[in-house]
Amino acid sequence: MATHSSRSENKDAGEEDELRRRNPYEVLGIPSNSTDQEIKSAYRRMALRYHPDKNPNDPVAADMFKEVTFAYEVLSDPENRRLYDTTGSEAVGPENEDLELDLSSLGAVNTIFAALFNKLGVQIKTTVSANLLGEALNGTVTTLPLMVGQVVSRKVEKQSAHFYSVTLTEEEAQAGLICKVQSSAKNKFKLLYFEQVENGGLSLALQEDSRKTGKLSTAGLYFFGFPVYRFDHRVNSRALSRDPETGFFKRLDTFQPFEITELKAGSHVFAVYGDNFFKSVSYTLEIFSSAPFANEKESLRSTEAQIVSKRSELLKFESEYHEVFAQFTEMASKCTGEVQEIDELLKRRNEICAAYTIFPPSKQGSSKNRSWSKGKSKKKSSLLMEPREEGEVAVREEDGVKKKKWYNIQLRQDKKKN
Questions:
Q1: Which domains are delineated in the chain?
Q2: pTM for the complete prediction?
Q3: What pLDDT, in 10s, does the model give residues 107-165?
Q4: Gap between the Cα atoms of 137 and 152, Å rounded
């Protein structure tokens, strides 16, 4: 009995531990009011600690890595995080559990399958290689110094990165900075920005995935001293495919500001990460001051402010829409019922009116009987037209009543006597 009790207690403890680990905030070790940047930083820190490449043959680390990834997927998606914060359910997670994949650790076979699904239209989310982030955090990556206004064209291998350092003066920092990368439309890459940590290493702070715009794939980071927004169109595409109505109202949920709005004077590090499945990426990088683009900056600020306002209006409009739609559905159902009831009443009225008559009810034979009667009448007509023997009297049938013959005179004569 003692053994059974111990097993039961261990099972309950395991279930409680599973529930606790399902709490995404506890898994990442952050409070529930954490910002997006704090969530990303916690995820990257713990993902590096428990990554399978750094902990081979360690099942505990593998489980923790899955939990950390799951927690980040819940909290990094605005809709999933809002659902979790509202319901308090510890089992909530992304609908498709479309976790970010580290292509560098997939292996050749899994990479082929991932590339195949991507070609078929399935959105494959990828993350920066954990080994690369570890090297950056340890300060073992090589950076190429660049000047503001300099343009560089290079080729980066898949799941690798080129690091660039830019030193800003006080005047350049106040004017604002733009970093843009472009490549051909068939290529995928990530534009990264790193912050320097105390040990001299680099910690990933911003990440912008490339997006196809016409014949090019582009990505950009903007530091203007005011919030500049990013929009994840992939999340919106998935929402629209699942439920177009809900997807419309959630369309601007992923329109969120960059975590860093300005750069201070000093050295800053950017990187271009090759995100293709099999081949390298040829790209062009340009880092330049935003001072000549004062009008464009104000236009961008005004337009994005209108988008943010429209997002708030959508939230209000959604509640109004559902309320009116519920009323419309109720009215449409009532209208259908009224039409059916009116039709039944009119049908009943016609039947009552048809009953007001002194004529005996006529027998409406079936089509079969009518056909039989018709055939019979034709037969009678043919009988009347048949040739008669001499001395026979034709008999007519009127109104279906057969008249009896009252005489039958033999008018035949013997021809021989004549």
A1: 2-99 (1.10.287.110), 142-312 (2.60.120.380)
A2: 0.59
A3: 666 666 666 666 655 566 778 888 888 889 888 999 999 999 999 999 999 989 999 99
A4: 25
